[in-house]
Amino acid sequence: MTWSSRRAARRRFSSYGPVDTELHYYVPRQELVDRACAELLGEDPTRGGHYITVWAPRQRGKTWVFQQAVERIRARGDFEVALLTMQPAETETTAERTLDVLARGLRYALGREFPELAAWRDLENLFTSAWFSRPVILVLDEFDAVGEPFIGHFISQFRSFYSRRATEAKRESGQKSCLLHGLALVGVRGVLGAEHARGSPGSTSLTTGFNVQRGLHIPNLTFPEVESMLRWYERESG
Ligand SMILES: Nc1ncnc2c1ncn2[C@@H]1O[C@H](COP(=O)(O)OP(=O)(O)OP(=O)(O)O)[C@@H](O)[C@H]1O
Ligand SMILES: [Mg+2]
Hints:
- 37% of the residues lie in helices and 11% in strands.
- By secondary structure, the protein is an alpha/beta fold.
- It has a single domain (28-237), classed as P-loop containing nucleotide triphosphate hydrolases (Rossmann fold), CATH 3.40.50.300.
- The chain has a four-stranded parallel beta sheet.
- Helix 2 crosses helix 3.
- The radius of gyration is 19 Å and the shape is globular.
- The model is unreliable at 196-206 (pLDDT under 50).
- The structure holds adenosine-5'-triphosphate and magnesium ion.
- Magnesium ion binds at residues 62-63, 141.
């Protein structure tokens, strides 16, 4: 199919895989995308964003919301933005291979080479001006596919990045020693251990640095949202 005939094709409903805003009926979910952007960019995008976790059941539209957010932030031009899936890490049994899933994902998302990551501390060198020219916004989708023994290592690295950036509060985001400006860990099951605890999230050491309370809530499509897609179809089909 050529590009033009693809565009001319009649819009359809899609119930699996990524929604294509040119081919499918969809709900803009503008407010949700705005919130995702606001978390990743932070109150002052020249300083730093938040590191958040987003857990919601399958098929809630998590990936879609972050694809939209990433697209919008990329269009600003002042960040390096990558959304990648950690799904392939599910079958990996060593730290090296698990880290390689991240390195390969970045390579694919940003279209250039990244160093081999052989140990957890190599992540520290990765998010520096040696490899990135602008502050970085990273979305790790299917983060809960990462093997149990390795999740804690990722979290503690990210946590230390966040604290280090916080101690460099006076510097602009791109001048900080660690360039990881905003981070979202997305999946179907909480991996920090405190998301499901009632009372005060943030009490376990793993959650320090992660703003568990801010974690984005992704609800099901509402009745008016579904209705809007049917009305859209009605208008187009007559
Ligand atoms: N904004 C939207 N408008 C219309 N349909 C949507 C929208 N977002 C998601 N969907 C529908 O929901 C399905 C799942 O979306 P998506 O893959 O983003 O969810 P997910 O929460 O990431 O799912 P999983 O947990 O399986 O990865 C899509 O295939 C599509 O049919
Ligand atoms: Mg998904």
